[in-house]
Amino acid sequence: MMEPMRGTLLTDLYQLTMLQSYVDHGMTETAVFELFVRKLPGPRGFLVAAGLEQALQFLEALQLSPEEHDWLAASGRFSRELLDCLAGLRFTGDVHAMPEGTVFFADEPILRVTAPLPQAQLVESRLINLLHYQTLIASKAVRCVLVAPDRTLVDFGLRRAHGAEAGLLAARASYLAGFAGTATVLADMQFGIPSFGTMAHSYIEAHDVEEAAFAHFARSCPENVVLLIDTYDTEAAAHKVVELAPGLREEGIGIRSVRIDSGDLVAHAKQVRAILDAGGLREVGIFSSGSLDEYALRELLDAGAPIDGFGIGTHLDTSNDAPYLDCAYKLEEYAGRARRKRSENKATWPGRKQVYRQYDAGGRMQRDILTREGDVQEGQPLLQPVMQDGRRLHSPESLKTLRTRSAKELERLPAHLRQLRSEPAYPVMIADALKALAGEVDERLEVMN
């Protein structure tokens, strides 16, 4: 059986019904589609582009499997001509994109696809699916990084993620945004993301004596001794760790940290820190988890909680305060003519576009200018060519490179956006050239319709 996540038919039916009509009427000229976010979710003042690597992998591998082709033929919905076209399907177009880790704002295209109309249309659903999710998670994770830049942050969200692919890609997106690693082992194997793990409460409960659980784990995993101490009585367990440490030290085993997963984390962390310090374990860190997000991190750190690292799970992998982005992938040009949607509250800017970013004297982001391609403005152009004639122009960027870019982008953010504020909105100016093109398209539409 074919792996579902690699299937070309992981798409919406209307992509195929439109393809049928395009083929019937010979509409196969070059089309330009752009993917953007219409508006930022209320809590977000900016977003971080992520998922381009998986999008390019999808385009490179685009083809209909024999099983998919047979299923479409058996469905009776599509003509032999369309089935023949799909049998030889490959992506042969060009792609421009913002590099992963780039900060962006509403209405700014992060991906442009230029290809024969049937190809460019067919890939819409999966491209949105891939870019939307990782961008969503990276944009959530980076807020945690802004709040706790000097703390160890680890993705703990696999078990609450909306499916296997989501859990895996959340690990990638959060690492790209600056997390130290993930609890998801496959992300370590597939992407080289450092994996972190301790123990569950069930491990402690399986032992009759809590001290025995600690000792057994330390001897079985001597290189990563992180002890979960809140199964019964957090402070009592901290005292047990102090009592256990000298014997383990004689065996050459050091305790790296203790983990607290419940209760009043500020109070527990302060009391545990005092117990560890009094017992000569100043080098032992405190790691916390349990329903955390950027807001909880800010409260904990503002309260002076002596916590060295955090596991961020459910609230990260579901982006609970902003669980979706208003993404769109819209036709901006077909057969050499600029196009635009004029639907109420959903109008788009026409034509191939570019985003120029301008910086102040201190290197902070000052404003962006959205304009039509070819209208050169001052600043840094953000959309870059990444694929031509269906082939990549460059080797895949390493996650290290993406993390470095993301970190530099955070350094360049205006001060208020570094503090989880969405107001005042970052200025994105619409260039006169783009406004003029929109006027030309509107005049043409009025004449023809």
From TrEMBL:
Nicotinate phosphoribosyltransferase C-terminal domain ranges (all copies): 380-437
Boundaries of every Nicotinate phosphoribosyltransferase N-terminal domain copy: 9-131
Keyword Ligase appears in the UniProt entry: yes
Nicotinate/nicotinamide phosphoribosyltransferase domain mapped to chain residues: 153-333
InterPro entries: Aldolase_TIM, N/Namide_PRibTrfase, NAPRTase_C, NAPRTase_N, Nic_PRibTrfase-Fam, Nic_PRibTrfase_pncB, Nicotinate_pribotase-like_C
Alphabetically ordered keywords of this record: Glycosyltransferase, Ligase, Phosphoprotein, Pyridine nucleotide biosynthesis, Transferase
GO cellular component: cytosol
Record-listed E.C. numbers: 6.3.4.21
The keyword Ligase appears for this protein: yes
GO terms under biological process: NAD+ biosynthetic process via the salvage pathway
Protein's pathway: Cofactor biosynthesis; NAD(+) biosynthesis; nicotinate D-ribonucleotide from nicotinate: step 1/1
Enzymatic reactions: 5-phospho-alpha-D-ribose 1-diphosphate + nicotinate + ATP + H2O = nicotinate beta-D-ribonucleotide + ADP + phosphate + diphosphate
Residues of the signal peptide: none
A molecular-function term among this protein's GO annotations: nicotinate phosphoribosyltransferase activity
Class of enzymatic activity (EC top level): ligase
Modification after translation (UniProt): Transiently phosphorylated on a His residue during the reaction cycle. Phosphorylation strongly increases the affinity for substrates and increases the rate of nicotinate D-ribonucleotide production. Dephosphorylation regenerates the low-affinity form of the enzyme, leading to product release.
Pfam families: NAPRTase, NAPRTase_C, NAPRTase_N
Summary of the function given for this chain in its UniProt record: Catalyzes the first step in the biosynthesis of NAD from nicotinic acid, the ATP-dependent synthesis of beta-nicotinate D-ribonucleotide from nicotinate and 5-phospho-D-ribose 1-phosphate.
Family: Belongs to the NAPRTase family.
PANTHER family: NICOTINATE PHOSPHORIBOSYLTRANSFERASE (PTHR11098:SF1)
This protein's name: Nicotinate phosphoribosyltransferase
Organism of provenance: Thiohalobacter thiocyanaticus
